[in-house]
Amino acid sequence: MSFTATISEENSFGTLRVPDPFVEKFGHNIPRNIKIICNGGMMWKALYDSGRQKIMGLEDFMKIHKVKQMYTLLLDYLGDGYFNVQIYNIYGVEVYMYHCHWNMENPDAELKLSEYVLGLNKLEDEKARSLFFSTAYGSAYGCYLRYYELKNRIFSDTVEDTNDIGNDSDESIMNMGAFIDDGEESDSDDGIEEADDIILGDFFATLSKSNVDSHCHGVYISKDLDEFISHWNFGQIVFLVRNGLRWHIGINVTNGRKRFSAGWSKFVDNNGLNENDIVRFSLRGDGVTFNVEVVVD
After folding, report:
1. Which residue has the higher pLDDT, 278 or 105?
2. 79: which residues sit within 8 A by CB, 6+ positions away?
3. Start and end of every TF-B3 domain (predicted)?
């Protein structure tokens, strides 16, 4: 279920009011600390105040993505505290949020940009890695950025009150978990457990060399599931669950076909998948989680 919010003078900048129908259906299941996922491949932390029916702490999000007065935000609730957000300008045209295309002429500036986007104020060289940022331009303009992962900083729920949200601290800006997650324990205690036992549909995929090599591309999702995933856009986050662990995976869209993208290579590496493996993907009732089973290896 989704809702819209138009930025007006009545809004406190960085705060969105959640409408009553949405609160009545989902409000009791939304955790205090939530994540806002952008179509440009970044994720922001925010705070849901159930008593005031407001999402707060979006000041930095609005500044970085240049959200202006009379712009409209469309927020689609994915469950488990995750919201996908789309921005529309005053003409009703979607504003794509890209900030990470690689600048080959000035890599130092690009590195500073990545550090700012990730909100890191400290470097740990021993944890430096390469990171693929998908952009709204698509794979042709994809980029590799170095980034520095601080232990227990990524994807941690440390925000406790509104004073911790919306400032320039290292907790304000986060990158999408699909890029860095090595798999976390999967649970179903976040208000969507009833949907976990329901399978909406499944498909089988035989992994090709391109699905498992060093620059692997994720498998395409069968069109048989289109009725359940037609609303997914570029940058949508889904979850792959195998052997009790869950990986955050980004979705790419090519010629109308949706496929697993950001985070796929890490999923392949950590699960020892190989060429010619036959894998079954079963979409759970929450609409964003796949059970993954290797049928033939």
Report:
1. 278
2. 29, 190, 191, 192, 195, 286, 287, 288
3. 204-297
What is this structure's pTM?
A: 0.41
Checking if the pLDDT of 291 tops 90, the result is yes
State residue 39's pLDDT score. 60
Phi first, then psi, for residue 74 (nearest 5°) are -110, 115
Using alpha carbons, select from 290, 123, 126 the residue that is nearest to residue 196.
290
> Region 22-33: what's the mean pLDDT?
84
Cα(183)–Cα(201) distance, rounded to whole angstroms? 23
The more confident residue out of 159 and 243 is 243
DSSP per-residue codes, 183-224: -EE----SS-HHHHT-EEEEEEEE--HHHHSTT--PPBPPGG
Q: What residues contact 252, with CB distance under 8 A and at least 6 apart?
A: 134, 138, 139, 218, 234, 258, 259, 260, 261, 262
